[in-house]
Amino acid sequence: MLSSMAAAGSVKAALQVAEVLEAIVSCCVGPEGRQVLCTKPTGEVLLSRNGGRLLEALHLEHPIARGLHAITDREKDPLMCENIQTHGRHWKNCSRWKFISQALLTFQTQILDGIMDQYLSRHFLSIFSSAKERTLCRSSLELLLEAYFCGRVGRNNHKFISQLMCDYFFKCMTCKSGIGVFELVDDHFVELNVGVTGLPVSDSRIIAGLVLQKDFSVYRPADGDMRMVIVTETIQPLFSTSGSEFILNSEAQFQTSQFWIMEKTKAIMKHLHSQNVKLLISSVKQPDLVSYYAGVNGISVVECLSSEEVSLIRRIIGLSPFVPPQAFSQCEIPNTALVKFCKPLILRSKRYVHLGLISTCAFIPHSIVLCGPVHGLIEQHEDALHGALKMLRQLFKDLDLNYMTQTNDQNGTSSLFIYKNSGESYQAPDPGNGSIQRPYQDTVAENKDALEKTQTYLKVHSNLVIPDVELETYIPYSTPTLTPTDTFQTVETLTCLSLERNRLTDYYEPLLKNNSTAYSTRGNRIEISYENLQVTNITRKGSMLPVSCKLPNMGTSQSYLSSSMPAGCVLPVGGNFEILLHYYLLNYAKKCHQSEETMVSMIIANALLGIPKVLYKSKTGKYSFPHTYIRAVHALQTNQPLVSSQTGLESVMGKYQLLTSVLQCLTKILTIDMVITVKRHPQKVHNQDSEDEL
Amino acid sequence: MSRLEAKKPSLCKSEPLTTERVRTTLSVLKRIVTSCYGPSGRLKQLHNGFGGYVCTTSQSSALLSHLLVTHPILKILTASIQNHVSSFSDCGLFTAILCCNLIENVQRLGLTPTTVIRLNKHLLSLCISYLKSETCGCRIPVDFSSTQILLCLVRSILTSKPACMLTRKETEHVSALILRAFLLTIPENAEGHIILGKSLIVPLKGQRVIDSTVLPGILIEMSEVQLMRLLPIKKSTALKVALFCTTLSGDTSDTGEGTVVVSYGVSLENAVLDQLLNLGRQLISDHVDLVLCQKVIHPSLKQFLNMHRIIAIDRIGVTLMEPLTKMTGTQPIGSLGSICPNSYGSVKDVCTAKFGSKHFFHLIPNEATICSLLLCNRNDTAWDELKLTCQTALHVLQLTLKEPWALLGGGCTETHLAAYIRHKTHNDPESILKDDECTQTELQLIAEAFCSALESVVGSLEHDGGEILTDMKYGHLWSVQADSPCVANWPDLLSQCGCGLYNSQEELNWSFLRSTCRPFVPQSCLPHEAVVSASNLTLDCLTAKLSGLQVAVETANLILDLSYVIEDKN
């Protein structure tokens, strides 16, 4: 029976859905976020602060909600629903959705990358202490992970868990290990951790070697030179293999074949013994006979391993399975590997197999033992650790940015054109002191030794040009008189600002002067500080010579550029990314002459502020959102470094990916004009999860 | 498999702890657990309308495994207690009561969850570091050279489980048995790494508790007829044992994935039987005296072995295989062909025994780390309870072997700890707060909630309307019977503190528990002579209690942190 129902795909409906979801996920966001308890249909309980998990647990019915779910599932924060909600608000009175959706798409594909590259990148810090070799120091990783786990696990455990992750990272990886290690750990994370219920969380630890969630079926203590083999089939030969027929003609024949099987098994095990094999790892159950002869020959046996476990072991030690030789010879068995130890490990009166594998790849095997009073909590921690790993994996990749710059001479102001060397992947010189340089710390001290380095910079970037229009756009924005006329009044801060107008006007007056005097130096900074903070420090002080080169091909109206965001870009936590992007988007909007571009930029800029607002919800006084916001904007206008009230770093890559996903989803939602509910069982398996059944 | 029905949307509730339903269910659970606590705790009779037997108990493990909780918050709570109990056996009720109390007390304060969680964590670490420190005034070292403290530990566990229905004499008897069973599992020549043996509990229902006993070795239950058939062995030396893990019944299984075609007239049964008899001949020539098989032995082989004065026992079952391997030192044989001579083991002697109405075949080991505890009780439910208690006691002894300390029981540790925390938070709040954003007032409030939660736990030891007092010197617990004359002369009314370490003859000041009194420093560092002279102490397992404390606070924090509950209604 097919019954279908159609409903107008109104933005209003989408807005309602987004509002409800936002209410739920916003309470989990940020360091002050709380836990949500979910029950599974099986009756199990699960704790979570992961947006994707929560939305999954809700079993959403509304197709738009399911669309939202698809993003949060993939990405880092659940908080982007907030974003969409704010977006939606603006369209209450707007009927040209299709048009806006087009504009959004243009924005996402052509403008956003440019903003990231030209403006935001100057604020980026690098997680690597040495950009060239990509070495990572512990303190910066700690800051990054602590901020990550702050939003992912319960308040009383985040410090401990982030320490655990940090330890794990440094124990498993050598300095030279590249992205491959991340892939291995990511793929096999389930096999690399063991959950133990009934113990306090603080008993969680990292164990050197690999812990398999199995017990030995035969255990023979051994030491000295130990080798192991992996088998994927039974060692004992069988009467008949699949597809063949074995004809028994006499009792004697049966007895001799049995005898032959026994002798053969015995011989194989003896041979393994003679090759110093002390451990047999099998993905299938071995017959009693094999276990018996293994025991007799002092070989320990681990059976019934999952294919994932076997593939993990094979990836670590690079060993292919042992195939019992057909024609028996006394030659050496090729597929054996040395093991440091193999012993039972007892965790809360359950026995596990503990292997000391000798790794042939960059991964040094370690297992995480996760303890917790209930399984739901352990699962949350496991999820969070896995998520952190994925985040790091992403952070270690470069991101290609492609965008289009437009230059218009309509206003008679000097046009903005920026030339980028796309091929040149320029790495900053090593700052030498091995930790992340924060712009707001010790700027003076660093200035001195950094001066000479910048000289070299200038040569590299000598063909760069300065955007002249910037000054004009900074000033009108900062003047509070502009605020009431702003069409997008959802930003409470701005309203807040206008209340304090008198005071603030006074406040900004010296600032305006400042801006004009700092003009020439600021121009440089924009170019020079591209992708490196070290330089940002210097130029911020205004101690550099101004560079002014005119570009030859001024007057071109469009050009496509591509550049890349280097791996390891981070920003301090606490809504910095959002506030920065908001600020630059507004600036950009001021400069734009196409109305829809301006509008889209403004909308996104204001929607972005929703996130810091949630983060600062519980803060009062000096740390409340309006204060923080004003401080940040002021700092940006006066070229001072942003001061964050929180310590911790977050990956720019994750944020960027999230934003693009949100924009894409939004584009899709806005294009939908009708929702047809089909009450029929999905016909195919792959259709089952499709979001929009249009 | 695809679903036949679309999934129903889940139910989502915000601020779950504030709802009346949750509060009521939490308080019901709290009433159930508090009323069970302690030696005078009330029993609960659990019966399932769908069948199964009625369970009478006061132990958390039995109670919670039979209870069916539906609310997710309660599920979290009971799951964490059950997990604690399955890893430490003891202190389940303590954990449950403390957790419920903490949630209740903290909720009344109305502070933000962030503050509460942070401060609870600080207080917990304060407790843990105190209980682990050298100056701790409520723990005593366990001396393994004498049985006195170990017996106290076991006795305390037995008396705190009233559903075992033991008299005083029976308690003494069972305590001694448990201790003996435990000591038998410790290998004699222990060097470096100790691997404990195992105590097997053998049920003997319908007998008097006093008939319970401990025997070294393994008892295999048999029918009388079977036992009669076994011929007595007369041998002065040790008996050679062969232990089979593979079947000796003569069936040919596992021929591979292909087909096996048997020609007409070929009898596989005969072929296999021939093989079995060959095996029998090898056993005879190897001078084996005893053949044990996990699975079934073919009757012909059995008879053949019997004819050659070899005792053959089959259907041992998988549970006995590991202890048998350990005790006899054999290698379980999985082959019907040639047997390695080093896979045989030995036992010192075998004999038959009759306990109550049951007949056993008794394997006596050369060197014992395996023993059998024959446990008797009058009826099924009482036996189940006693068995659980014995397992708890054996586990607690093992934990104590690892960490040779015991905590003072009878509620004295809790009152002492509460006094210590009160004193610490009043006199040295800076050291606890350090760099946190919490204020001193918040700390005082949370500390009070924490301490009164601890004191409420011991308050629930009293079920008969009596009063609970605490002294102002040691911070121990003293209880007064109900309807005793009003505040006349405390030293006459009170005889001993809860753990039995101090008596009322000292010059002490008392105050009612839960009455507001000024904080005092509870005396730390126990006097050594007091511990030695005291013969009848009530003691608790340190490891289990520490973990129980941690689990209770962690679970309470977890529950207080919840902002939404999403229930899947599928």
Automatic annotation (TrEMBL), chain B:
Compartment annotation: Cytoplasm, Cytoskeleton, Microtubule organizing center, Centrosome; Cytoplasm, Cytosol; Nucleus
- SUPFAM superfamilies the UniProt entry points to: GroEL apical domain-like, GroEL equatorial domain-like
Single Gene Ontology MF annotation: ATP binding
* GO cellular component terms attached to this protein's record: centrosome; ciliary basal body; cytosol; nucleus
Q: Which Pfam families match?
A: Cpn60_TCP1
Q: What superkingdom heads the lineage?
A: Eukaryota
- What biological processes does GO assign it? animal organ development; cilium assembly; developmental process involved in reproduction; protein folding; system development
Keywords on this record?
ATP-binding, Chaperone, Cytoplasm, Cytoskeleton, Nucleotide-binding, Nucleus
Among InterPro entries, the record links this protein to: Cpn60/GroEL/TCP-1, GroEL-like_apical_dom_sf, GROEL-like_equatorial_sf, MKKS, TCP-1-like_intermed_sf
The protein's matches in PANTHER family, at most eight in alphabetical order, are given as: MOLECULAR CHAPERONE MKKS, SYNDROMES PUTATIVE CHAPERONIN-RELATED
Assembly information from the UniProt record: Component of a complex composed at least of MKKS, BBS10, BBS12, TCP1, CCT2, CCT3, CCT4, CCT5 and CCT8. Interacts with STUB1. Interacts with BBS2 (via coiled coil domain). Interacts with CCDC28B. Interacts with BBS12. Interacts with SMARCC1, a component of the SWI/SNF complexes; the interaction takes place predominantly in the cytoplasm and may modulate SMARCC1 location. Interacts with DLEC1.
Q: What does this protein do?
A: Probable molecular chaperone that assists the folding of proteins upon ATP hydrolysis. Plays a role in the assembly of BBSome, a complex involved in ciliogenesis regulating transports vesicles to the cilia. May play a role in protein processing in limb, cardiac and reproductive system development. May play a role in cytokinesis.
Q: Which family does it belong to?
A: Belongs to the TCP-1 chaperonin family.
Query: What name does this protein carry?
Result: Molecular chaperone MKKS
Q: From which source organism is this entry?
A: Homo sapiens
